[in-house]
Write a structure and sequence with these properties.
The chain is an alpha/beta fold. The chain has twelve helices and 14 strands. α3 links the parallel β2 and β3. α11 runs parallel beside α12. The longest helix is centred in the C-terminal third of the chain and has 19 residues. The protein is globular. Pathway: Porphyrin-containing compound metabolism; protoporphyrin-IX biosynthesis; coproporphyrinogen-III from 5-aminolevulinate: step 2/4. Its EC number is 2.5.1.61.
């Protein structure tokens, strides 16, 4: 089912598209002015001459959402280590990735999600930065040599949001309506339930760009991760929130991961103080499933591990054909413990591989 947000009337209201690189509206944090001051500092860090060498250099992409995640990391570091509050102790380094530069092609055609992390990982390995902040759903199941990812911050809401100017739910969209998404996972699940809709696949760009395209009428609706909208304080754009049963999230959706060099004990100690173990275990389960499937951007895959009311782990997973004509689902339940949850993810992957049969993942 779809959960409406009743406090705001979102039907037929134009979305704000006044977004620039360093303005308040660009970052979408109208409700949190203190963030904008910090975000401006993030951009200024590239041009200011520091009188003090930074203790921690945080590497990140330059999108408003990526900067929000980097600042969340910075705030948590300062909260746990007050000495890092000194001016210049933490520097944010913006790194443009190949995935950011090439927006005219689907991700699968240019090499997959690793393109959003490769340049940042290289900067980390070459000691140009000390830690790297990633959206975990962009991180390949393998990590580059000489790096570790010992920290996950507390996970945000994993659900997807439906955004539309003319309908209050997906079910209300007329047949033939065009929905924009860059995600095969969203496309396949959407078409499986609503085969009369049309989907534009290469609907790429940051959150602000996608909302601008929607506002300009390129599509009638779009689906975005609710976690990103919350981190950008942009939930006023949401028409309704999709339930887990209606739209199973991507592996690691809503989670932030922080990497460092494997031989950097100082950074590993800092990151250990930030790690949220429940999130780390859930992400480990989901990524074990993804690794078993050898999933890529060409395959619609979804997986979500969570604690149930009894404190156990409930893992739900699916694979689908790109057009949604075939969706295979499974679930597992067991103790909320690392070894058990890894086995659950692997077992679920093996089951779906067997049920899918040869050729399913090579379409």
């Amino acid at each position: 089912m779809e959960t409406a947000i009743p406090t705001v009337n979102r039907i037929r209201r134009p979305l704000s598209t006044n977004f620039t690189a360093v303005s308040v509206s660009a970052l979408g944090f109208r409700k949190s002015p203190t963030f904008f001051t910090r975000a401006s500092v993030a951009v200024e860090d590239k041009t200011k001459t520091k009188t003090k060498t930074a203790v921690i250099r945080i590497g990140t992409r330059g999108s408003p959402l990526a900067l929000a995640q980097a600042h969340e990391t910075r705030e948590k570091l300062i909260a746990s280590h007050p000495e890092l509050a000194e001016e210049g102790a933490i520097q944010i380094v913006i790194i443009k990735t190949t995935g950011d530069k090439i927006l005219s092609q689907p991700l699968a055609d240019i090499g997959g999600k690793g393109l959003f992390t490769k340049e940042i990982d290289e900067a980390l390995i070459n000691s140009h930065i000390d830690i790297a902040v990633h959206s975990m759903k962009d991180v390949p199941t393998y990590l580059p040599e000489k790096t570790i990812l010992p920290c996950n911050l507390p996970r945000e809401d994993v659900r997807d949001a439906f955004i539309c100017l003319t309908a209050s739910s997906i079910a209300e969209l007329p047949a033939g309506s065009i929905v924009g998404t860059a995600s095969l996972r969203r496309k396949s699940q959407l078409l499986n339930r609503y085969p009369s809709l049309k989907v534009v696949e290469n609907f790429r760009g940051n959150v602000q760009t996608r909302l601008r395209k929607l506002n300009e009428g390129m599509v009638q609706a779009t689906l975005l991760a609710l976690a990103g909208l919350k981190r950008l304080s942009m939930t006023e754009t949401v028409t309704c929130v999709l339930s887990i049963d209606d739209m199973l999230p991507a592996v690691a959706q809503g989670a932030i991961g922080i990497a460092c060099r494997s031989d950097d004990e100082k950074m590993a100690t800092y990151l250990a103080s930030l790690n949220h173990e429940d999130t780390r275990l859930a992400i480990s389960c989901e990524r074990a499933f993804l690794e078993k499937l050898e999933g890529s951007c060409r395959t619609p895959i979804a997986g979500y591990a969570s604690r149930d009311e009894d404190g156990n782990c409930l893992f739900k997973a699916l694979v689908a054909s790109p057009e949604g004509t075939q969706v295979l689902e499974t679930s597992r339940k067991g103790a909320y413990a690392y070894d058990v949850m890894i086995k659950m993810g692997v077992d679920a992957g093996e089951e779906l591989l067997s049920r899918a049969g040869p050729g399913f993942f090579n379409r």
